[in-house]
Amino acid sequence: MRPIDASEIEPLSIGAWILGTGGGGSPYKNFLNVRKLYREGKTCQLMDPSELADDDMVVVVSNMGAPLVGQERLTDPRTQVRAIEVLQDYIGKKFRAVMSVEIGGGNGLQPLLPAAVMGLPVVDADAMGRAYPEAQMTSFAVANLPMFPLSLVDIRDNEVVVARAASWKWMERISRKVCVEVGSVASTCKAPRTGKEVKTFGILNTTTQAIKLGQAVMAARKAHADPIEAVLRQERGKLIFRGKIGDIARRTTEGFLRGSAKVDGLDDWRGSRMQLDFQNEFAVGSIDGTPVVMTPDLICVLDTVSGEAIGTETLRYGQRVTVIALPAPPIFLTPKGLEHVGPKAFGYDIEFKSVFEPNAGDRS
User: Fold this and answer.
1) Exposed, middle or buried by CB within 10 Å (0-12, 13-18, 19+), for 94?
2) Which of 278, 341, 351 is nearest to 138 (CA)?
3) Residue from 58, 331, 332, 78 nearest 191 by CA
4) pLDDT for 14-47, tens place per residue?
5) 299: domain CATH number?
6) What DSSP state is assigned to residue 111?
7) Are residues 173 and 242 in the same domain?
8) DSSP H helix total and E strand total for the chain
9) How many domains does the chain have?
């Protein structure tokens, strides 16, 4: 257990935004909220997963909805706190700690909000090692752990508990329908996990990973070095494409942000065009019509100059961008993992091939 220093909030925000693979929602509002809580004298403790007792109860939190809607609606820590209280009352047990369902984007900072208000430690772990759009796309789902109960709270004083669901996909369908009805953004608590489940099936030490990644980017900027090279070095990533956004099409539907972006090549890629398809997060990247990078490899789109991550909701015509890939957590590379998060899970008739496989080729 150690305190999360105020100086670590910004690098956590930067690193989580990169790991978000275009989704998880922009961390900016959560960053402002956490900084405000710290200025009011509240702090957060980061808990190593090994410190959890096997029977400790851990609450798994996230904002749910479409990132584009999240840009327009302010985040209130009290909404997430209330979602925890609702679930705690329902199960009749106190939570020992809080963790995020995904380290990506704004959800990477989400557990800090209730943690600072309620005095709970933040577990250094999540269930994705990035961001994914659906409830069944977690390490807990791959492990066939229970998917209920779930609580959902919005800013209008609506509170819902999904007491039971037939499967992870049914939990996703039911909770997503509720989320759409309350405006396509809400605070949720996923099924509570025991300390043993977190230690065995969680993606561990990802908060620390995000902080170190953000620190690497900030150090590169300060030294006037290439921040993208710093990301590749820190995460053992691969350079995929560099260019300028030439076209963008997206729509918010069924509680998701769906669409595609076309990137016209620059430098070594001049004359080629890359298409990035996304459902909240980037799912498949194709160059001149051939798929070259795909989920579960992390597809990250960064500002070519600053190294700042660019979300699917913040893509703009004319942006100079660099597309990179980062390695996926091993659990998602298993046959069962690919069933949950591989390209076919998103509706693409593509056999998964990682850019990190031998002879895959790269320009990093």
Assistant:
1) exposed
2) 341
3) 58
4) 999 999 999 988 999 999 999 999 999 999 999 9
5) 2.40.390.10
6) T
7) no
8) 11, 18
9) 2
Q: Does residue 310 lie within any of the structural domains?
A: yes
Burial class (CB in 10 A: 0-12, 13-18, 19+), 328: buried
Structure tokens at 31: 């960053």
> What are the beta bridge partners of residue 185?
65
**DSSP H or E run through 140:** helix 139-142
Q: Which residue has the tokens 């710093």?
A: 230
Residues 179 and 114 in one domain: yes
Say which residue the tokens 């749910």 belong to.
64
Q: How far apart are CA 78 and CA 121, in angstroms?
A: 17
In percent, the amount of the chain with pLDDT more than 70 equals 98
Same domain, 12 and 94: yes
pLDDT beyond 70 at 363: no
Q: Which residues of 105-122 are buried (b: 16+ CB within 10 A; e: fewer)?
A: bbbbbbbbbbbbbbebbb
- Residue 40 lies in domain: 2-206
SS3 90: helix
